[in-house]
Write a structure and sequence with these properties.
By secondary structure, this protein is an alpha/beta fold. The protein folds into two domains: 134 residues, Rossmann fold; 56 residues, Arc Repressor Mutant, subunit A. The chain is 45% helix and 14% strand. It is built from ten helices and nine strands. The strands form two sheets. The chain has a six-stranded parallel sheet, sandwiched between helices. The chain has a three-stranded antiparallel sheet with strand order 7-8-9. The longest helix is centred in the last third of the chain and has 15 residues.
Length: 242
């Protein structure tokens, strides 16, 4: 993999949830080759996930969406409600942004595609274990395109109340857990539209330096490193729902 010394790292315990046994076996072989990752259990349908988590106490569940009895989306929702300390990474064949929105809304921390390389999967597991989100680059592009089509609240109502956009069912929710000021919420909206700092400044009639300060404040308050993660986390935190 890389030249990092992983010998002293703690083990990241992973539970596999997928109804295809051969796929699980392949994942298990790949992950158990890493010194800092251990597959502690397997589930073949979503209804087994809760019991598997209580039995094996994993840190991360690699969850397929299409499983019998209980799908991965609902299994993720159950985990978020009952065992919120366990992180879920969706590992799916679906690259449609609607799946990403729904799984993030239900509590997933990551979304990966099954055709990704083994090294990228391992990197994603380590990233999520460190408390960060991880979205497959191909999916991120589609997610941002969808976000650009959303209509958020106007500046005067960004914190006061939610409003429904012209796209059916899409809402921007400014709940009590939203730490952003009214101006920061507007900057975040324009960031989601793909506007540069200069364009945001021209739109809001403020200097580019002031925009940079707002962006820095947004990233700090949301504990993220870049604009994309800020927008994605706004969905995950429930500020944007379907």
């Amino acid at each position: 993999m890389d030249n990092l010394n992983l010998g002293n790292r703690r083990k990241i315990k992973v539970l596999l949830a997928d109804d295809h046994q051969l796929f699980r076996e392949g994942l298990k072989r790949i992950l158990n080759m890493e010194e800092d990752i251990e597959v502690v259990g397997e589930c073949s349908d979503g209804s087994q996930v809760m019991e598997g988590c209580r039995l094996h106490l994993p840190e991360i569940v690699l969850m397929d969406i299409n499983m019998p009895i209980l799908n991965g989306v609902e299994a993720t929702a159950q985990l978020r409600e009952t065992l919120p300390e366990i992180k879920v990474i969706i590992l799916s064949i679906h690259d449609d942004e609607s799946y990403v929105f729904e799984t993030l809304r239900k509590g997933a921390t990551g979304y990966l595609l099954k055709d990704m390389e083994a090294e990228s999967l391992i990197n994603a597991i380590r990233t999520v274990s460190e408390g960060n989100g991880f979205i497959h680059p191909k999916v991120t592009g589609k997610l941002i395109q969808q976000l650009r089509r959303m209509e958020y609240l106007s500046e005067t109502g960004a914190i006061a109340e939610a409003n429904v956009s012209r796209e059916a069912g899409v809402k921007f929710v400014a709940g009590d857990n939203n730490p952003l000021t009214r101006r920061e919420a507007e900057v975040l909206r324009l960031m989601a539209e793909g506007r540069s700092n200069k364009m945001i400044g021209e739109h809001l009639f403020i200097s580019e330096k002031t925009v940079k300060n707002h962006v820095s404040s947004i990233l700090q308050k949301m504990d993220v490193d870049d604009r994309t993660q800020a927008v994605i986390n706004a969905i995950k935190f429930g500020w944007v729902t379907l």
